[in-house]
Prior knowledge:
Blueprint (H helix, E strand, L loop, with lengths): L7 E2 L5 H10 L4 E5 L5 E6 H9 L8 H4 L7 E2 L4 H11 L3 E5 L5 E6 H7 L7 E4 L20 E2 L2 E2 H11 L4 E6 L3 H8 L8 E6 L21 E5 L2 E3 L3 H10 L4 E11 L3 E5 L5 E6 L2 E13 L15 H10 L4 E5 L4 E3 L3 H7 L6
Parallel strand pairs: 1-2, 4-5, 7-10, 7-12, 10-11, 14-18
Antiparallel strand pairs: 2-3, 5-6, 8-9, 12-17, 13-19, 14-17, 15-16
Pfam family, one: CBS
Protein name: CBS domain-containing protein
Keywords: CBS domain
Amino acid sequence: MPYLQNVCVKPNDLLKDVLERLSRNSHGLCVVVDDNNQVLGTITDGDCRRALIKGLTLVSEASQVMNTHFIAVDESFSIEQIMLIMKSNSVDQVPIVDGNRCFLDLVSTRAIQQSRSERKNPVLILAGGQGLRLRPLTSNLPKPMLRVRGRPILERLIERLTADCFRDIYISVNYLGHKIESFFGDGSKWNASIKYLREERELGTAGPLRMLEGKVDSAVLVVNGDLVTTVDFEACVDFHNKGKYDLTLGMSYHTIQIPYGVVQLDQKGKVVSVEEKPKRTYSINAGLYLIEPKLISLIPENVTFPMTGLIESAIVGGYNVGAFPIHEIWDDIGMPDHYVAAQELQID
Length: 348
């Protein structure tokens, strides 16, 4: 394939030639193959930089630079399988190989996204809170802009949404909102269209949604702006649609350990058991929702209104409310200990 001419290199090719090929191809990756076209490794810009820092030179061979622990996929894999593998391993492109590990093609997240249908569901990211429990970290920075493993929480969230083909994104802003707007702009850098809902006062977790009344015609994916997660947003929407829910909330799990022995009594007050320091697991609200447009009118206008209030109103009103189970990495950065722990999450 002509477009792969600048992708393949041989193990004895010089680093300077690899860099030249990287500059000419649009993938940011070269595949190292032997004379039988079997894949030996991959080389990225980052691999080249690390090699030079370690003391290799421009006349070092590709075999000294290549990553031999690369991810490759078999030609029989479906697009869905390939996307799952790339997402699970946090890579943007992978070589496709045959049964003999011979190189056939290179597939990238961007190429798959361009070939897949864009999700029609608008996204609302809630980013207007003050993050008071994280002071002084949030004294001069909105909580969603705090960095986890070197990058803003909100940027990671937007990249995961666009990887799942969600392009129409609204961000509700209030506290230091200008810093969010100046960083993301119109979203084109992230292959998204970003618009801002400016709260004159804090409107809570459901209040900003009222500003979308009459502007949306499909279920809105609402996400807290402080989430660090690898959740499959597409699967969440599919769950919502299949169940014909009016409102779906994302549900994660939290386990706590009681630091005492728990006493069980019968109806007469007699002790029947003592369970020493038991663990209890609870289903918790994960700060992720799918909400049909017809429910937006249940939200009072221009007042602080929590998402729990909307959920309760929907239940009382007889609407169909579902819970989507989240088994992937999930954490909300609401407390200092959560922020510290998030730095160790395997999300890269």
